[in-house]
Every structure is written in structure tokens, then in C-alpha cells.
């Protein structure tokens, strides 16, 4: 702390509140701790009886907390992320449009490893709406050594934007319902309405829909037909487990699709299949997707619509946070389900 004459304090940072009292009218801080003194403040300060004030020794090597927070926000924000003006030293990062939030978790950890620097975020890979808060950043002291902020900026450079929002586009879907019991009319198809309703939330139209028996050849042929006719994503239900009549994975394999995974460490969703045929995603959805409100489908679909090609390694990492607690009142995404690393 340094005592300086108010006339010499322009550009310097106040290190205590300065109170104004007008009897019966007002009592409160006229100037707040952390305020940068301006030319116009001088007469006001003199009127308040302040000829000297205490300021932080904020030389060339130091940055005001507002400036520091803005610099971290600017360096860490990628496409689809805007940020607010500082408020009491804190800058909020905000979604500029609806989309899939992507966070470079490793980069965020490195930023927080820098002493006195804070970047606090939501979870990655979740859908955010326009205007949603994504993260908050600030530094702990009122002024901070410039080198720390330069280091934070270097981390952002090395790791790419730490936060971005990816736009999701709707895909035209070819839906294949398998199962002899449905095909022969022994039971009513209750799976397709669930899938159609979920897809409609993302604006994805179901262009084609077939109900097929448990026959590998027919499944293979229909996948190819749908793609040939313009389907941008194939969804197949039924026949995903290990019973003799569960032939869907075989049908997908025979189409020539590259299987990313058959099986996923997500409950519900263990019997999930993901494959790509000519870059078209082919999803085999186990019956749990029909029964449970939230499943692996809710974790994978947004990523596909955001244009990501999901690799097996990413699916295996989903085991951490992959257990749905099946709460009576589902609060997803405000729960631990799908909060993988
Ligand atoms: N022997 C084993 N059985 C099951 C296992 C296992 O590991 N070994 N895993 C269980 C898990 S976990 C799941 S999830 C399901 C996966 O089932 P499938 O996706 O193969 O579904 P299906 O066996 O074809 O059907 C299960 C059940 O749901 C009814 N169903 C299917 N499609 C429809 C439809 N369109 N409309 C109405 N009802 C439908 C079907 O009739 C069966 O009753 O497997 C577990 N079993
Ligand atoms: O394998 Mo199932 O977990 O209920 O999809």
C-alpha cells in the first residue's frame, strides 16, 4: 500500500472503499476497493475530504483484477462464446447460441494451477442454450503479477480455445425397427415413438422407417437402401443383446460399416453399437432406450449432431460418470450422469 495525493493518483488502484455520507439521504461506498482513479474523480474525492488515498503499488508488472479477468476470458473463449464486462473482478463466459459445449479440461486445469488465477466451468459435452453461463473467471488479489496472466494466455494458445460452443445441425434419419414380435404384429411398436419424439427435440426428421424381422440380410439391405436414398443417420432398435435372435450387430457389420464399438460402459446403454458407413453414423440402440428417460442415446446424439465423429476411446472414457441413478424425477443434465472426464 502506498499513500499518494489524490491529484497524483489518476490511473492507480484504490485499496479500500471510500464512504460518502449525506445525512438522511445516503451512506455507502462512493468509490469501491479496486476502483481505478480517473481525472473526474479528483474533485469528488476532495469533496469527500480525501487529500490522500491508499493505492496498490501497481507498477508496470501488475494488472488490475478487471483487466486480468478480461484477458483470461478473451484468451480462453472460442467460437460461440462471448463474455461480460467485469463485475467486482469477475467476468462470465456466456453461450452466444444454442449448441454443444466443448471444454478443454486439461487446459482449464493448467489455468487453475497458476496461483491466484480462477477459471470455473460447467461440464463439457453438454447442451447449452443461448445466454447460458458457461464459466466464470477472476483473479484472487486486486492486482496480479502480469506474468501469471501471460502464462494463462500461453496455455490458451497451446491448448486452443478452452471453451467453445459447437452448432448442432439436424440430420435426416432412417429408422429400422427390428424384432419378429413387432414385425408379425404380436406386440405394438413402442420403441419408434420414443425415438421419433427424442429426435424431434433436435429437429431431426425421420425420413424413412421400416419394421423388419430378426434377419441379418434384411437389416443390411435396408441400411444401404436408406443411405442410398439420402439418410444422414441410421438408427436401429431391437436385437442388440446376446440372445440367438439378436442379429442387429451382425446386420450392421455385414453392411461394411466400420464398427467403432459394440458395448459401452454406460448404464443404461451397455448394449449400444456405434458404426460408420461412408461417414454416415449407424446407431444400434438397446431396448433400455425405450424404457428409460435418459440413456446413452442422450449422450451420443448431441455429439453426432455437432458434427463429431465419436471414437471408441471417447466412449470408453464415458464409464466415469456413466452410471444413471434412475431418479424418480429425472433431473438430467443436472446430475452426475454423463459427466465424464
Ligand atoms: N441374455 C441376455 N439378455 C439380456 C442382456 C444380456 O446381456 N444377456 N442384456 C439386457 C440389456 S442390458 C438390454 S438393454 C437388453 C437389450 O435388449 P435388445 O436391445 O436386444 O432388445 P430385445 O431383446 O430385442 O428386446 C428386449 C425387450 O423389449 C421389447 N421390445 C424390443 N423392441 C420393441 C419395440 N419396438 N416395441 C415394443 N417392445 C419392444 C422386446 O419385445 C423385449 O421384451 O437386453 C437385456 N437382455
Ligand atoms: O445394455 Mo442395457 O444397459 O440396459 O443397454
From TrEMBL:
<protein>
    <recommendedName>
        <fullName>Molybdopterin molybdenumtransferase</fullName>
        <ecNumber>2.10.1.1</ecNumber>
    </recommendedName>
</protein>
<dbReference type="InterPro" id="IPR001453">
    <property type="entry name" value="MoaB/Mog_dom"/>
</dbReference>
<dbReference type="InterPro" id="IPR038987">
    <property type="entry name" value="MoeA-like"/>
</dbReference>
<comment type="function">
    <text>Catalyzes the insertion of molybdate into adenylated molybdopterin with the concomitant release of AMP.</text>
</comment>
<dbReference type="GO" id="GO:0046872">
    <property type="term" value="F:metal ion binding"/>
</dbReference>
<dbReference type="Pfam" id="PF00994">
    <property type="entry name" value="MoCF_biosynth"/>
</dbReference>
<dbReference type="GO" id="GO:0006777">
    <property type="term" value="P:Mo-molybdopterin cofactor biosynthetic process"/>
</dbReference>
<feature type="domain" description="MoaB/Mog">
    <location>
        <begin position="174"/>
        <end position="306"/>
    </location>
</feature>
<keyword id="KW-0808">Transferase</keyword>
<keyword id="KW-0501">Molybdenum cofactor biosynthesis</keyword>
<dbReference type="GO" id="GO:0005829">
    <property type="term" value="C:cytosol"/>
</dbReference>
<keyword id="KW-0479">Metal-binding</keyword>
<comment type="similarity">
    <text>Belongs to the MoeA family.</text>
</comment>
<keyword id="KW-0460">Magnesium</keyword>
<keyword id="KW-0500">Molybdenum</keyword>
<dbReference type="InterPro" id="IPR036425">
    <property type="entry name" value="MoaB/Mog-like_dom_sf"/>
</dbReference>
<dbReference type="GO" id="GO:0061599">
    <property type="term" value="F:molybdopterin molybdotransferase activity"/>
</dbReference>
<comment type="pathway">
    <text>Cofactor biosynthesis; molybdopterin biosynthesis.</text>
</comment>
Amino acid at each position: 500500500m502506498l499513500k499518494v495525493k489524490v491529484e497524483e493518483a489518476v490511473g492507480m488502484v484504490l485499496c479500500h472503499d471510500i464512504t460518502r455520507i449525506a445525512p438522511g439521504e445516503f451512506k455507502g461506498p462512493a468509490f469501491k476497493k479496486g476502483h481505478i482513479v480517473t481525472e473526474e474523480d479528483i474533485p469528488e474525492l476532495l469533496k469527500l475530504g480525501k487529500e490522500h488515498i491508499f493505492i496498490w503499488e501497481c507498477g508496470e508488472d501488475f494488472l488490475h483484477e478487471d483487466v486480468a479477468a478480461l484477458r483470461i476470458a478473451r484468451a480462453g473463449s472460442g467460437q460461440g462464446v462471448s463474455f461480460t464486462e467485469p463485475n467486482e473482478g469477475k467476468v462470465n463466459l456466456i453461450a452466444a447460441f444454442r449448441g454443444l459445449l466443448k471444454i478443454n479440461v486439461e487446459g482449464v486445469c493448467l489455468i487453475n494451477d497458476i496461483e491466484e488465477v480462477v477459471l470455473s466451468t460447467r461440464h463439457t459435452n453438454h447442451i447449452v442454450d443461448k445466454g447460458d453461463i458457461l464459466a466464470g473467471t477472476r483473479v484472487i488479489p486486486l492486482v496480479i503479477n502480469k506474468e501469471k496472466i501471460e502464462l494463462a494466455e500461453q496455455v490458451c494458445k497451446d491448448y486452443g480455445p478452452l471453451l467453445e460452443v459447437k452448432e448442432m445441425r439436424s440430420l435426416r434419419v432412417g429408422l429400422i425397427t427390428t424384432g419378429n414380435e413387432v414385425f408379425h404384429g404380436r406386440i405394438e411398436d413402442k420403441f419408434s415413438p420414443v425415438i421419433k419424439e427424442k429426435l424431434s427435440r433436435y429437429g431431426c426428421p425421420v425420413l424413412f422407417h421400416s419394421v423388419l424381422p430378426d434377419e441379418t440380410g434384411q437389416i443390411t439391405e435396408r441400411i444401404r437402401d436408406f443411405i442410398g436414398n439420402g439418410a444422414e443417420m441410421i438408427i436401429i432398435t431391437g436385437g442388440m443383446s446376446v440372445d440367438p435372435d439378436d442379429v442387429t450387430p451382425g446386420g450392421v457389420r455385414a453392411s461394411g460399416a466400420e464398427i467403432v464399438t459394440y458395448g459401452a460402459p454406460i448404464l443404461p446403454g451397455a448394449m449400444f453399437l456405434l458404426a460408420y458407413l461412408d461417414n454416415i453414423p449407424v446407431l444400434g440402440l438397446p431396448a433400455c432406450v425405450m424404457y428409460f428417460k435418459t440413456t446413452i442415446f442422450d449422450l451420443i446424439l448431441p455429439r453426432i449432431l455437432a458434427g463429431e465423429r465419436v471414437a471408441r476411446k471417447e466412449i470408453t472414457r464415458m464409464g466415469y460418470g456413466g452410471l444413471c441413478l434412475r431418479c424418480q424425477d429425472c433431473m438430467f443434465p443436472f446430475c452426475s450422469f454423463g459427466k465424464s472426464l
